[in-house]
User: Which sequence fits this backbone?
């Protein structure tokens, strides 16, 4: 007994400088982990449910032990998910390319060789982002109907381009401003044209910024629902509309729904995980580095 | 007056000669600078300003889409109807409650999480990754999940977790629709706030904190008098940008409650959608849209000032 006591006292004594702190920090670390897991839990539950048979998905109490299956993912494509994903891919991909093609030169004009009234132009771009979309949906619907562009993926492409353009201009401007002036002056000195300066000098230097901008555009257009639900029907419908199909049959097909939700979210989740650093800058329109 | 006269000959091209090569070159130079900007500018004007002007025009007309030829000019009477509409006022109130609730709560969570994440600890990047994930989940997908797997009265996890407290079959999305929507929104937007505040914490000068420690300030004191003032700009930015996005919330309401029961949880975007696409009342919907834009301008002006201030400080 005595030896044990001494040993215990010894360890308690040898550490006192650090331990109170360290024990507290261990507690905080555990708490942080717990909160993180709690926060992530709905996502985990979605993925778990996606691997269930329907009978295991709606039980009381909820079931954690079950026989996993890929049945739901296979069924998705039998249920015709393919075209929705293709439409989303098309709308997201093409609109992102268009945004970059328009935003990079504009950001160049605003950052490198500022035009007059640069502030006003920036103000204008960002104010279009703050215009609530409900305020323009009615005329867009009527005009698209008149020119036979309802339920057409190109309508979405144009709208997603307009939706992301202001963010992209602001972001690219903030990235371009970081480029040292001397580099550009040197390239001009050598007699490079604007196009050469853009493609051969600037673009390689802002490639990370370009990737970050593209990521933000992809997130917003892949997840976009309001325009899609109002302007498309069967041929141009995107992934969020495929998910909406589960609203009517809710309660019966939770596992199927969870599989669809998982698959629908996967591209953006993976991209976002890979580019966490750029996410902050994109979300603050480039204001925070 | 006399100074004007004195200055003009010096700045303008010398009189008596036709516009010189110099001014033509200057003009060319100006256009060369503007040219890269124009495609984006023109596109943005066509795609956003023209539809908005058309909205303003529609708002002055009475027009129902299902009755062709019903279009006629009625002046401001749509606006009078909008302000007399009880549901519109309720939807405006819901918009404020949902936006305010979501932004404030997720900012408080965001600050707490950011402080927790701003330490070195085992698995930090894993925890951060878990915490940002809700923001990346497709909003339609997360709304579906909250409505079913979380809030379902019979099989939902929320009632299961609360069953020790006597909650058995509470129907969250119909008995507490606004609360359910705000919950799903807070879950989605907390990562946004966390990331912004975390960026603020990490930009904090270490020397100031060390000085505080040397002066014997405790952690709470340090947080209140050093960290919070430094974070202020980041918090303001998060609140304003968050508000601009959350005001437009549509997905969660469409999926979780359809604005119901009745119109209890409809916000303005959802109510306008109902009037336009279920009621086909173009004039009324357009007038509401214009009113929303005017309301948004107030918040947006504040946000813009802040963005410019932030940029000015960064550069």
Assistant:
């Amino acid at each position: 007994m005595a030896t044990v006591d001494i040993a215990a006292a010894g360890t308690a004594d040898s550490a006192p400088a650090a331990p109170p702190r360290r024990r507290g920090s261990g507690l905080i670390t555990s708490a942080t982990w717990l909160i993180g897991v709690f926060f992530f839990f709905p996502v985990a539950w979605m993925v778990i449910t996606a691997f269930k048979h329907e009978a295991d998905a709606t039980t009381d109490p909820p079931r954690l032990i079950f026989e996993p299956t890929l049945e739901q993912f296979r069924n998705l494509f039998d249920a015709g998910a393919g075209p929705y994903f293709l439409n989303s891919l098309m709308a997201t991909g093409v609109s992102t390319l268009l945004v970059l093609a328009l935003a990079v030169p504009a950001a160049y004009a605003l950052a490198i060789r500022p035009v007059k009234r640069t502030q006003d132009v920036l103000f204008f771009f960002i104010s279009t982002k703050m215009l609530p979309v409900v305020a323009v949906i009615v005329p867009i619907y009527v005009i698209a109907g008149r020119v036979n562009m309802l339920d057409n993926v190109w309508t979405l492409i144009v709208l997603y381009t307009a939706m992301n353009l202001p963010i992209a201009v602001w972001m690219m401007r903030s990235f371009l401003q970081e480029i040292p002036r001397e580099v550009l002056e040197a390239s001009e000195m050598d007699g490079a044209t604007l196009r050469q300066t853009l493609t051969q000098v600037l673009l390689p230097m802002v490639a990370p910024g370009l990737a970050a901008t593209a990521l933000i555009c992809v997130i917003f257009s892949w997840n976009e629902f309001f325009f899609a639900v109002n302007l498309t029907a069967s041929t141009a419908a995107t992934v969020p509309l495929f998910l909406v199909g589960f609203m009517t049959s809710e309660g019966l097909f939770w596992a199927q729904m969870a599989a669809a939700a998982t698959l629908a979210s996967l591209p953006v989740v993976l991209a976002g995980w890979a580019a966490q650093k750029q996410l902050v800058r994109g979300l603050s329109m480039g204001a925070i580095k | 007056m006399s100074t004007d006269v004195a200055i003009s000959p010096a700045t303008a091209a010398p009189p008596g000669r036709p516009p010189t090569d110099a001014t033509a070159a200057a003009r060319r130079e100006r256009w060369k600078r503007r040219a890269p900007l124009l495609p984006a500018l023109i596109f943005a004007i066509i795609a956003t300003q023209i539809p908005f002007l058309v909205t303003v025009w529609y708002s002055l007309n009475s027009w129902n889409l299902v009755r062709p030829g019903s279009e006629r000019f009625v002046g401001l009477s749509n606006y009078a109807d909008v302000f007399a509409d009880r549901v519109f006022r309720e939807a405006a109130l819901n918009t404020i409650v949902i936006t305010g609730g979501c932004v404030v709560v997720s900012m408080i969570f965001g600050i707490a999480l950011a402080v927790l994440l701003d330490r070195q600890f085992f698995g930090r990047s894993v925890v951060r990754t878990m915490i940002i994930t809700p923001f990346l989940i497709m909003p339609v997908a997360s709304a579906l999940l909250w409505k079913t797997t979380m809030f379902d009265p019979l099989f939902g996890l929320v009632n299961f977790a609360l069953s020790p407290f006597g909650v058995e079959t509470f129907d969250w999305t119909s008995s507490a629709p606004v609360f359910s929507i705000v919950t799903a929104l807070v879950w989605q937007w907390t990562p946004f706030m966390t990331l912004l505040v975390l960026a603020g914490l990490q930009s904090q000068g270490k020397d100031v904190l060390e000085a505080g420690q040397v002066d014997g300030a405790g952690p709470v004191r340090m947080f209140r008098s050093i960290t919070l003032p430094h974070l202020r700009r980041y918090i303001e930015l998060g609140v304003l940008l968050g508000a601009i996005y959350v005001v437009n919330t549509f997905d969660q309401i469409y999926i979780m409650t359809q604005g119901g029961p009745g119109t209890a949880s409809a916000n303005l975007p959802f109510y306008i959608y109902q009037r336009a696409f279920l009621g086909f009342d173009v004039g009324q919907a357009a007038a509401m849209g214009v009113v929303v834009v005017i309301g948004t301008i107030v918040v947006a002006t504040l946000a813009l000032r802040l963005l410019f201030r932030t940029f000015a400080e960064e550069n």
